[in-house]
Design brief:
By secondary structure, the chain is mostly helical. Helices cover 85% and strands 0% of the residues.
């Protein structure tokens, strides 16, 4: 009746629905947090696939992490919204995301776990700072 494959497929579909539902009801701040979580999760998957020698899935996981950083986190940076005081911060953050992408690509090409670890650590540092920003109604 249920095989391991159908269980994994069903569990994956259930997880996707949960993520999609969470994303639809999330604030912009929470969406950014979800992007950080997603990028770090895929880096963890890449690390696992790298350790087991699964080249294809490793590459797919790293590509997904790159996509999240480049087309998610980096793409939503807005120097105009940051104002004159925040323009330098936005530029520095964009450059840091570019560096993280570079490290992820190097990790993929060289099977370099240190590059994965560095990208993960940098993302966690930025995510931690982002989570410290309280955008709740009490502070509006």
């Amino acid at each position: 009746m249920y095989t391991p494959h159908t269980f994994r497929t069903g569990a994956g579909a259930y997880a996707r629905v949960g993520v999609e539902t969470g994303a639809m009801s999330a604030s912009p701040h929470q969406l950014i947090c979800m992007l950080f979580d997603g990028a770090r999760s895929t880096i963890g998957m890449a690390r696992h696939h790298m350790s087991t020698g699964d080249i294809g899935p490793k590459g797919q996981a790293i590509s997904k992490a790159v996509d999240i950083v480049d087309n998610g986190l980096r793409a939503v940076l807005d120097a105009k919204a940051a104002g004159p005081e925040g323009e330098a911060l936005v530029a520095n953050l964009s450059a840091l995301y570019g560096y993280i992408i570079q490290r992820l690509l190097q990790a993929n090409l060289r099977n370099d776990t240190q590059a994965l670890d560095e990208a993960d650590t940098l993302l966690e540092s930025i995510a931690s700072a982002w989570r410290e920003i309280d955008t709740g109604p009490a502070h509006a």
